[in-house]
């Protein structure tokens, strides 16, 4: 996998390079400031980009803006955003253009090597990888919506779906059968007025798109 990394913290940036190369991936470019990000992405057109939200010179949303612009010019460009905190507005804005090939993780996830690499590979394959805290923010910020009709178990299933987990993992996490998970998913889509589908990432992307574009 060819990857572009955009991170202003030199120690974390070099750590990411080492981690990815050790895992067999190729880091084709690194960026330490906001203005460097978009040119690197457009030049290399990587299989995935790992981007910090706040970068020099303004430390506001330079990384996010570059990601949004790059996805406008390279539709479907897989982007995994790293942030120090849950910044709900940034997560929601990034998802506005569609949820396919997008991830948003808190930086402490990078310390969990297997989880980070799994998330990056899911995103590169067109899937979704949202930090559980980000999912919680996206779910709870909406009031008086069809989400209110979900049962606690259906909400748990929806949350795990949004994080990018498959049926088997959801069943294991909730200690239920896969058949029960399939039934809960059907109920979730029915209550959200979405076509009931159990076909991989499409169900996750449909839910995330719905949550973002209400």
From TrEMBL:
Lipoprotein among keywords: no
CDD domains tied to this protein: LuxR_C_like (cd06170), REC_NarL-like (cd17535)
Keyword set includes Phosphoprotein: yes
Record-annotated HTH luxR-type domain positions: 143-214
Domain of life (superkingdom): Bacteria
Pfam families: GerE, Response_reg
InterPro entries in UniProt: CheY-like_superfamily (IPR011006), NreC/VraR/RcsB-like_REC (IPR058245), Sig_transdc_resp-reg_C-effctor (IPR016032), Sig_transdc_resp-reg_receiver (IPR001789), Tscrpt_reg_LuxR_C (IPR000792), WalR-like (IPR039420)
Keyword terms: DNA-binding, Phosphoprotein, Transcription, Transcription regulation
Positions carrying 4-aspartylphosphate: 52
SMART domains: HTH_LUXR, REC
Ranges where the Response regulatory domain occurs: 2-122
Name of the molecule in the record: Response regulator transcription factor
Organism: Streptomyces coacervatus
């Amino acid at each position: 996998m060819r990857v572009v990394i955009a991170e202003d913290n030199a120690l974390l940036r070099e750590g990411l390079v080492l981690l990815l190369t050790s895992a067999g991936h190729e880091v084709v470019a690194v960026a330490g400031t906001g203005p460097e990000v978009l040119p690197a992405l457009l030049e290399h057109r990587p299989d995935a980009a790992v981007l910090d939200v706040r970068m020099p010179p303004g430390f506001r949303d330079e990384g996010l803006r570059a990601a949004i612009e790059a996805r406008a010019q390279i539709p479907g460009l897989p982007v995994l955003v790293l942030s120090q905190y849950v910044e709900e507005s940034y997560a929601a804005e990034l998802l506005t253009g569609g949820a396919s090939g997008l991830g948003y993780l808190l930086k402490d996830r990078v310390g969990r090597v297997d989880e980070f690499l799994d998330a990056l590979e899911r995103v590169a394959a067109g899937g979704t990888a949202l930090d559980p805290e980000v999912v919680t923010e996206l779910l709870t910020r909406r009031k008086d919506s069809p989400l209110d009709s979900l049962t606690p178990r259906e909400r748990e299933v929806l949350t795990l779906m949004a994080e990018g987990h498959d049926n088997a993992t959801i069943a294991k996490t909730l200690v239920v059968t896969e058949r029960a998970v399939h039934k809960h998913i059907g109920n979730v889509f029915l209550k959200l007025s979405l076509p009931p589908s159990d076909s991989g990432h499409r169900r996750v992307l449909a839910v995330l798109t719905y949550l973002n574009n209400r």
